[in-house]
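Consortium newsletter contribution from the modelling node. Members have asked for a concrete example of what our holo predictions look like. Here is one, prepared for the SAJ complex that several groups have been discussing at recent meetings.
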Amino acid sequence: MANNLKTTFAPRNVCVVGLGYIGLPTAAILASRGHHVTGVDANSAVVDTINAGGVHIVEPDLDLLVKTGVQSGRLKASMTPVASDVFILCVPTPFHPESNQPNIDYVRAAAESIAPHVRPGNLVILESTSPPGTTLDVVGGALQAAGHKAGQDYHLAHCPERVLPGAILRECVENDRVIGGATPACSAAAAEFYATFVNGDIVLTDCKTAETVKLVENASRDAQIAFANELSLICDRLNLDVWEVIRLANRHPRVNILQPGPGVGGHCIAVDPWFLVAAAPDATAFMRATRERNNAMPAETATRIARAAHQTGAKTVALLGMAYKNDIDDFRESPSVAVHKHVLEQLPDVKVWACDPYVHAMPGVELKSFEECLAHADLLALLVAHRPFRFYDWSQLRPDQTLIDFKGVLQTG
Ligand code: SAJ
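And here is the predicted structure:
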C-alpha cells in the first residue's frame, strides 16, 4: 500500500521503549510531528541527559531535534513506561557469540514492561530487528499473559527500522516501511500511525514476513560485502589492485560489486544473517560462509599490515579509523578494534597507535591525533574512510612513510 493515507492528524501519546540509535531519533521525530512522546530507557544517565535537552549518541542533527522536542514539552524521558495510545519497542536484539543464537531477552523484558499499561484499542509495535516469529510469540505472548489478545483488543505489528547510521533522521522519514500486522486490521492501524511521519511508501504484510524481510535485507548486504572481501584476498594473492578490478568489472551494466574492507561491523549486518541461520540451520550454508568470510577479515587485514611492517622496517604503525564505518563515532563491534588486537599480537616490538577524529577514548588503545600519526608513524593503515582521511592529500606523505589503503580512498575515477 502506498503512503497515500488521508488521515486527519491527531496527536497521540506514544511510549518509545529503548532510547538508542533507533528509539531516540524516532521519539524526537514523533515529537517534532506533534505527538506527545515518553521515551523509556533503563539507563538513568540517558534519561537525565535527554530530559536536560542533550543526547548520548552522535548522529547528525539529532541534538537539535531532541533539544527542540524537550523544550516544546512533547518529548520526555523516563525509566518506566506510561499508559499511551501507541507503544514502540526499539530495544537491542543481539546474539550469543558462542552459539550464534539470537538473544531476545530485551524484547521479552520490554514487552513485559509495557503489559500493565496496555489498554484496549492501543497499538503495540516491535521495531527491533527480530528472528521470525518474535512479534507474535514473544511480544504477543507477553501481552497475552497479561490478558491482552492481539488483533482482538489491541493492535500488534512489526515495523522493522531500516535506517542507515549517519543518515537516520532523513531515512526514518523518507524510507519505505514494511509493516507486518498480526491481522490486516493491525497492519492498517500501524500504517495509519506511520503515515503521520513517514513520507516513503508503506507496504503491508504479516508479522513473520516483515521480520524475515528485514533479516534478508541485511543478509544480502553481508553476502555482497563478503564477495568484495573475497576479491580482495584473491587480488592480494595475485598481486593485483582490487580497487581497479572492481572499478573495471562495475563498468558492466549488470555488475555492481561493493567495496572490500577490514571486515563488517555494526550491530545489524554482522548479526542478522545469524538469525536466519538459527531459523533454518540446514538451509543456510551460504550465509554461514559469507559471515565467516567477513569475520576473518580483521585477522587478514592485520596480517597484511604486519607483512608491510616487516618489509619496510616500520617502528610505529598508525591504524586510521576505529569506528565501525565512516563518519560516525560508534566503535562497538568495529572491525578496527579486532584489527588493533591482531596487530598488537603480530607486531609485539612495534608501537601501535590508533587514530579516529570522532572517537576520543578507547580502553586499551593508544589514541593519537591525525597530525601526530602523519608526523611520526612509519606505516599508516587506513581502515575507515572518515571525511578527514578522504580529503587529505596523501601525496604529502614523506618517502620514508607507507600508506596501506584498505578503503580505497586513494582511488579516483
Ligand atoms: N561495508 C563494507 N563494504 C561496503 C559497505 C559496507 O565493508 O561496500 C562495511 C562497513 O564498513 C561497516 C559494515 O559494512 O563495517 C556495515 O555498514 P553499512 O553502512 O553497510 O550498514 P549499517 O550496519 O550501518 O546499517 C545497515 C543498513 N542495512 C542495509 O544497508 C541493507 C541499514 O539500512 C539498516 O537499517 C541497519 O543495517 C540496521 O539497523 O539493520
